[in-house]
Amino acid sequence: MFRDLAKLAVRRNFGKSDIALRVIFSDGSVFATSVASASETEVTVRFLHPRAERMFVLEGGVGFVEAFHQGLLCISDEEFEVLIDHCRGIYVGARSPFLVRLRRFFHEISVSNKDWGQARRNAAFHYGYPARFFELVLGSTYGYVEGYWRRGDETLDEAMRNRFDYMCRKLYLKPGMKVAEVGSGWGYMTNLMARDHHVEVDTFGIVDNQNRALVSMASAWGVQDKVHLIEEDHRALAARPDLYDRYVSLGVLEHAGRNCDAAWIDSIKTCLKPGGIGLLSVMTYNAPQETDFITQKYIFPGGHIPHIARVVDLLESRGLCIIDLENARRQYARAAASWLQNFKTNWDKIRAIDPSIFNERFRRTWFVYLMGASTAFASQDAHLSVQQIVFSKGRHCDYPLTRNFLYQ
Length: 408
Fold this sequence. Notes:
Layout: H1 2-14, E1 19-24, E2 30-32, E3 41-47, H2 50-69, E4 73-74, H3 77-91, H4 98-110, H5 116-127, H6 131-138, H7 156-171, E5 178-182, H8 188-197, E6 200-204, H9 208-221, E7 227-230, E8 244-250, H10 261-271, E9 272-285, H11 293-298, H12 308-316, E10 320-327, H13 329-345, H14 347-353, H15 360-376, E11 384-393
Parallel strand pairs: 1-3, 5-6, 5-8, 6-7, 8-9
Antiparallel strand pairs: 1-2, 3-4, 9-11, 10-11
Helix pairs in contact: 1-2, 2-15, 3-15, 8-9, 13-15
C-alpha cells in the first residue's frame, strides 16, 4: 500500500516538473516521470527499504530526508541538491503532514529554552563539537555568520574578516566603552572589539568548547584583561541594569526558541544604558511560517526562526528604537555555499577527528543542512533572510545620521 501511495506522491509532485525523476522502489519496480531531454536534469532515487517508502508517504519531505539520514534510500549529493531546490517551490508555505506537526509540537516542548539548563544543552548539541571541526568548515575566523563580499572575489576568510570589521563599525564603538555580547562563538568578534576598538567586553557564553577557544584567542591577542567571559545564560543580564554602552548578538536570537524571544529582548532593554546602541544579526522569515522541522530536530534543538515583523515589534514595543536595518541574505547565501564546499572538501579530515562522531550518518545530516542553507538563502521560492538591525535604547542617541561612516 505504501509503495503505491509513494508512487502517487511522486507523480503528483514531479509529474509536470522540469526534472526527470527515476525512482527505484525497494521491490525493484521503477517509476519514471519522463525521459530526460537535453534541457532537463535527471535525478535517480533508490528506496533501499520499505520503511523509507512508508516514511515518505506519512511525513513527506521530512520522512524523505530522515530516510536519507538513515541510509534507507540512495541519491547522489548533486542530485539531492537539484531535488531539494525543486521541492522548495512545492513545500514552502505548505502545511506539514499531521505526523510532522505532532512531532514538532512534542519536540518543542521537550527542548524548550524556557528551562535554563535545557538551553545550555541545546547550545552544546550543535556547538559542542571540537573546534577543529568548525574551523575546517567555517574557516580561520570561525565566522558562523553572513560574510561581507565587498568586491565579490574575496576568499571566505577575507569576507568574514570584512564582515566582523563591518559589525564593529555598525556598533560605533569608542575606546573605554563597556560592551555586552551574547553568543560569542569562538571569540573572533569579541577579541576584535577589544583589540582594535579598545573596549571592555563582557561576553556571555554557555558552550565549553567555544569558551575555551575564546579565552585562548584573547590570550594570544593580548586582550585577556579586556575580555571577561561570563558562563551564564543571556537572561542573567536582567541583573545588570543600565550597565552597558553597547550590546551585540550575531546569529543567536533565532536560538531563543518559540515564546522565548521576548525574554531575550527584555534582557537587552534592561542591560543597555539610556541612549546605548545594540546590534542584532538574526535569521528571519519574510512571511509567517514554521521553522523547518529537520533543522529543529537534528541541527538546532530549541531554535525558532521568527517573522521579521515580530522582531521589529519586540524591539520597538520595548523602547529599542530601530536606527538601521540591512538585509544580508545574499551575503549569507555565499557564506553557506562556501561552508558546504569546505565540508565536502575536508570530509576526510573531519572524519579523522573522531570517526565515532563524524560518521556517515553525520555526513548525510550535515550535508543536507548546509546544502539546504546555501540554496534556501539564494532561492526565489524561500522566505529566509538575515537582518542586521541597529537600534538604540530610547529615541535619543549619539549615532551618525547617515551610513557614510561605515564605508570610510
